[in-house]
Write a structure and sequence with these properties.
By secondary structure, the chain is of the alpha+beta class. It is about 30% helix and about 20% strand. Helix 1 packs across helix 2.
Length: about 230
């Protein structure tokens, strides 16, 4: 992994609580049009790729497969190579997307704090995050600690990250890391501001470990002035 896809060597990493994926409620029009179109596109993409690969391997031995000129019989080598040239790249892309989705679902998400900022790690790689210049304040809340977040929204221990820019659902801040989205896991909670000058919306990362000592040391080392006093 390059330096652009992993936290720095000086990073402190902690496991996050795994949360069940949010259920997305679709409207009537989305259900009526969107779902059938998605299913149709998936069937065409997967089925078409399978068809091309089978043709490249087996030629006319599969019912319905015919060579150029609509004549049944042995498929020309060039025709089968052309089918493979189309099918193999599409299959590779599908395999990569499936692997990424499986990794995101099965890997334990982590938070990393280093000299550059605060990062969300999926499978050991930086997936999202904010640089210190994009962060107005960070609040570490241990078990039973004080926070303005209602217990129905999130339970300590947790990390609250208050960005400099107001959080907008459809326009996350830009990151200098080309692969990293400028937010933290899409976990946004709107609650009363934790301190004067801060907005109510903040990114919240619920921790799997109750100990905040290492994370607190890292913030004090890299950006002490951004840590809210306890």
């Amino acid at each position: 992994m390059s330096e652009q896809t992993r936290p720095g060597a000086d990073a402190v990493v902690a496991d996050l609580e795994r949360r069940p994926p949010r259920k997305v409620r679709l409207g009537g029009l989305e259900l009526l049009l969107g779902v059938p179109l998605m299913v149709f596109a998936a069937v065409v993409l997967v089925g078409g790729t399978f068809y091309l690969l089978v043709y490249a391997i087996s030629g006319p031995s599969v019912p319905g497969l015919i060579n150029q000129g609509d004549a049944e019989g042995p498929a020309p080598v060039g025709e089968r190579l052309q089918a493979a040239a189309y099918g193999v790249p599409i299959l590779a892309i599908l395999a990569y997307l499936t692997w990424r989705a499986a990794r995101a679902r099965l890997s334990t998400p982590k938070v990393a704090i280093d000299s550059r900022g605060v990062w969300l790690l999926i499978g050991g790689r930086i997936a999202q995050g904010l640089e210190w210049t994009q962060i107005a304040a960070v609040n570490l809340v241990g078990p039973g600690g004080a926070t303005t977040i209602p217990p129905t929204a999130a339970v300590p221990p947790l990390v609250e990250v208050f960005p400099v820019e107001r959080i907008r659902d459809r326009k996350p801040p830009k990151s200098s890391l080309p692969h990293a989205e400028g937010h933290l896991g899409g976990r946004v909670i709107d609650a009363p501001p934790a301190a004067p000058g801060l907005t109510g919306k903040r990114y919240v990362l619920e921790l799997a470990t109750p100990s905040l000592d290492d994370l607190a040391t890292a913030i004090d080392h890299f950006a002490a002035h951004r840590r809210l006093p306890q």
